[in-house]
Amino acid sequence: MNRSDRELGMDREISRRDFLNGVGAVAAGTLVPGCVGHGTTGSTGGAVGDPANYPPIRSGMRGSHVGSFEVAHELALQGKKSWGAIDEPDTGIYDLVVVGGGISGLSAAYLYLRKHPSARILILDNHDDFGGHAKRNEFQVGDRTVIGYGGSQTLESPQYYSDIAKQLLGDIGVDLEQLKGSYDLGFYRRHGLAGGTFFDRATYGVDRVVRFEIADYSAWLPLASSSLTASEAVARMPISDPARVEMLRLLEVHENLLTEIPADRQGDYLETISYRTFLERHLGIREPELFALFDGIATETDGSIDVSPALMMLDYVGLPGIGATSLHREKFEEDPYIAHFPDGNASIARLFVRAMIPRVAPGSTMEDIVDARFDYSRLDESSSRVRLRLSSTAVRVEHDGAPDTADRVAITYVRGGRADRVWARACVLAGYNAMIPHLCPELPERQREALALAVKVPIIYSTVLLRNWRAWKQLGIGAVAAPGSYHASVMLDFPVSLGGYEFSGSPDDPIAVNMVRFGKITDAALSPRERFRAERHRMLATPFSEIEREIRTQLTGMLESGGFDPARDIEAITVNRWAHGYAYYYNEMFDSLDATDELPHVIGRARFGRIAIANSDAGAMPTIDSAIDQAHRAIEDLAQR
Question: For position 41, what pLDDT does the model report?
């Protein structure tokens, strides 16, 4: 190990590394905690709090972790058909089997149980924890527990949710007003924490944080204001003089330059052109240096500014230039982004599971779900009407006879290297929709082709536990865009205290830091879907050690001038790798939206005999309400049979 690695703390024994370092073991399923054994109790046993028994405290490479994807890849990429003799360990027939234990799958099971209180239900999931992208990261520092999120983050704009989604959340105990009241709105301003932009040494020749937002966070974080003017901030940016001139013009523009387009049509227009085209055509931006900078912080798209619709970049991501239009970007006060649990939407998943399997955890409220200790050994008990079986990858779903007349469905799955089969009167496929053609080859060809287009956006959510946040306080920053770094954005966790959980109130307290990476594939010849696939392959080939080094280097460059020491101050690292992340949402630059009934997600989600399809993929929208709405539609589809 070289000296720089030692200085970064790469030689420290912290809670960070998987047994297999996150890559390279196709047969690793039998070595991953939760995959051991082949019984139907669902857990390896052990004390609650033991990482072998309690997935939220497992660290290192999580998300699409080793053991969760190898069987699916054998099926989809290698065309494997057999995993040996098939056992049938469960007696009788289930009323419903749900494939996929994320929010949509859990919602589907809950809705079915509400319609049929005496039903027998089995939920299968390929991961060692439930919740899908709604993942909980939990850390212990002395006698203090720090909770973070590893994916699905917040109930965004819940006032616009469907009545179905609102009612379902209420049914499981979510009180939106109380949840919003748990967010400390004054935290950032009280501590003088503004937004900033980090320019890294490898890209810009110097490590420098400019306490000014190029990507405007004001729509989703109540940060303190920067003391710098745009002119002062640009003068501190390590970019060329021509790039400074163009950057300042872009930051200071407050004049409608789209005069040839009526104000009420500008939004539609900006959905049909890229952000790069907007900059070139309407603001005269020409410097390649700026295009590369904006590519580096074009989060949410997993592409680049040449394939990202201008409206999304201006409105949702907050890249500069909206002042050159007649549009108004919503600020935090208009639509506050505060319906957030300490573990993100993992608490939603936990509420669903506890509602269906009460013995898994004590309590009955939204407040006590936060620090409830789940007993995973009770998820898959034979005496329970609802069972949740983890580390179980479905490989075949087929009717017992013709789909129109069959009275049951066979679901074959692989667990611990062996194949099992269960039978159900109905099945909901609530996992990644692009896998369904491989699971269910009897589907009509047109439907299989449509489902295959549900290519998800790969994302990495890294959660880093710090001993304290003194350096952030010293530098006066709470959230930072990082155009040249591996992770495009870095922020202190949301300041939420709920139930018995208290957020880090003092700079001397430990805290979770959230770092997000979307892909940076900038090959202009590739469509968004092709870019997503390329980034997924790159992501799965990147070992944990490489990502850890990027994390340590980035945090050091950002925070060292505030007194940060990575070897001393980093307590744990959890990399939540979602090779299949956000549901595909349509891009009018590449997708025709003229015929709604002909859109791939609509064709793909059609009921097929006793099989219905859920997941946010089926709504072409990567949000909690979409996941719930699609679960509701799937259960209603089954009722129409």
Answer: 32
Parallel, antiparallel, or unpaired: how do β-strands 121-124 and 386-389 relate?
parallel
Which stretches within 541-613 are classed as H helix? 544-559, 566-569, 600-604
Per the structure block, which two tokens stand in for 82?
A: 């057999």
- State how far the Cα of 520 lies from the Cα of 302, in Å rounded to an integer: 6
Q: Please give the structure tokens belonging to residue 22.
A: 């996150």
Picking from 18, 12, 70, the residue whose alpha carbon sits closest to that of residue 393 is 70
C-alpha gyration radius of the chain: 24
Other Cβ atoms within 10 Å of 163 Cβ, number: 7
Structural tokens at position 373 = 């200790």
Q: pLDDT tens across 378-396, in order?
A: 999 999 999 999 999 999 9
**Which are the contacts of 411, defined by CB distance < 8 A and separation ≥ 6?**
97, 99, 124, 394, 396, 397, 421, 422, 423, 424, 427
Measure the CA–CA gap between 319 and 525, rounded to whole angstroms.
24
350: left (phi over 0), alpha (psi -120 to 50) or beta: alpha
For residue 406, with 0-12 CB atoms within 10 Å meaning exposed, 13-18 middle and 19 or more buried, which class applies? middle
The Cα–Cα gap between 69 and 71 comes to: 6
Q: How many CB atoms sit inside 10 A of residue 599's CB? A: 17
Element (H, E) at 4: helix 3-8
Determine the residue type at 296: G
Contact 543, 66 (CB under 8 A): no
**Cβ-contact 511, 504 below 8 angstroms:** yes
Q: How far apart are CA 266 and CA 95, in angstroms?
A: 51
pLDDT tens digits for 19-55? 334 443 333 333 233 332 323 333 333 334 566 689 9
| 72/124 Cα distance (integer angstroms) | 14
Q: What is the pLDDT of residue 302?
A: 56
Ranges in the chain, pLDDT < 70: 1-3, 14-52, 299-303
- What is residue 1's predicted lDDT score, i.e. its pLDDT? 45
Which domains are seen in the chain, by residue range?
Answer: 29-181+340-455+589-639 (3.50.50.60), 226-334 (no CATH)
DSSP string of 486-532, one letter each residue: SSSEEEEPP-B-BTTB----STTS-EEEEEEEE-----TTS-HHHHH
254 CB neighbour count, 10 Å cutoff: 7
Chain centroid to CA 630 = 18
Q: Are 515 and 199 in contact (CB under 8 A)?
A: no
Q: Is the pTM of this model over 0.85?
A: yes
The pLDDT value given to residue 9: 82
